[in-house]
Prior knowledge:
By secondary structure, this protein is of the alpha/beta class. Helix content is 38%, strand content 17%. The strands form six sheets. Strands 11-14-17-10-18 form a five-stranded parallel sheet. Strands 1-2-4-3 form a four-stranded mixed sheet. Helix 7 (201-213) runs parallel beside helix 16 and helix 19 (466-482) packs across helix 20 (490-513). It starts with a strand and ends with a helix.
Amino acid sequence: MLFKLDSFTLTGIDAVKVSVEVHITRGLPEFIIVGLPGKAINESRQRVRSAVINSGFDFPVKKIIVNLSPADIKKDGSFYDLPIALSILSASGQVKSAISGESCFVGELSLDGSINPVKGLISMAEEAKNIEKKFFFVPYGIANQVSFISGLKIIACRNLSEAVEILSDRDKVGKFTYRKESNRRKFNDYSFDFSDVKGQLKAKRALEIAVGGRHNIMLIGPPGSGKTMLARRTVTIMPDLNIQECVDVTRIYSLYEKNVSSLIQKRPFRSPHHTISRIGLIGGGISPKPGEISLSHKGVLFLDEFSQFSGNYIEDLRQPLEDKRVTITRNNFSYSFPCNFMLIVATNPCYCGYFGNDSKKCVCSLREIKRFWKKMSGPVMDRIDMRVAIDRLPEGSFVNERKSEDSSKIKKRITGCMKIQDRRFREKDISYNSEIGINIISKWLEKDKNIRNLVYAISKRYNLTARGTVSVLKVSRTIADLEGSDSIKENHIIEAVNYRVSFNCHLNSYINRL
């Protein structure tokens, strides 16, 4: 007898419908799975057999062929345990399905018949809605993750017996339909705050501007100057994720780990160590998975000790920084993952860490300093809009009891800045000043001849590339937005230029003296 149920597979971040077809016939007892199954799917034969028997059903002692269609797409993962088990029970006459044609199924079975979480549930639920399914059978433990999707009934099953009970009796669907939990959204329950940072007013100002326009930023300073402390507190001043951003972030994390029980509501902050693998940073593998750059989507990617990262890894960031998406090709298939993140990098100014520091003398030679900065990729550095030098604070600063401005006040200003950008780019596929193109910038410049002359003079004086000049104007626009100015003023451009070239000028001056 032949029976078929619908499930899904994942190609990158997207879900594709897969039909689980089961044919039971006479012959020597055999259990075969075809349709380009991966190792985890082939192992499901043992899981399904044990789960069916331990749930009180009979496992057919016949020849069983399972086909995962379409057969030309490689499938991997444990998504198909539940639909395979239900199809076998239906094909053998133990289950009379009432709603199978309107439903789709995913779930990993334990040997006792309980249903375990799987990855990529949001992508699958959205595809189930797109193909006009009414019911989606999912593991109970992660049902809250997709409970927000309207027009699709989420059937949360704890075990195989429950799934059979629901499938056999349409009247019981309502009993097992998952009801959305009333989760109170919490955004500001961080255990750290910008008020923890003593001094460093220039760095705080720079980070406020960087977050306001989503500009990439580099923090340069000696050990103990507070670079990491500042970077980690950046997420506390970023505006709250809206519901669509929560969905986008959760979709990625549900590919990365199974037990994402609900929507992720905090901005991601990822800080990989410099010993990370290339696949871990960018993504990929035999069955491509998102890397750290995708896990930072809508949040912050912080690369501490930037100079210690492999040159190849740094070069790999060029295309994702530009396109906000990374595409990985394996076996004639392309997998695409979003990676729209704000990049913060931190580095010492030299090997010993004390170049340009007044309190301790740098012991690096001219050759060593040149070699140190040569490791930094020129094209990637050109994509970093702001470079800020941070000095170590005097010892007396740490006993100063006066608190600095807290994150909530800074966040309020940044939220206002974001609203201005939302109005400006309402009819464009742009969210932040950092994403604008030369056509928009040209319109800004054509209104003010003095600004055009200033930009030309600065570009010529500091030998800025075209991207560097555009970067200065983008940062200038963000500074103007933070001040509520309708147009870019000269002081905005001068401040933006300072963030772009001040450390380079200091470095070149020192090298020339040597």
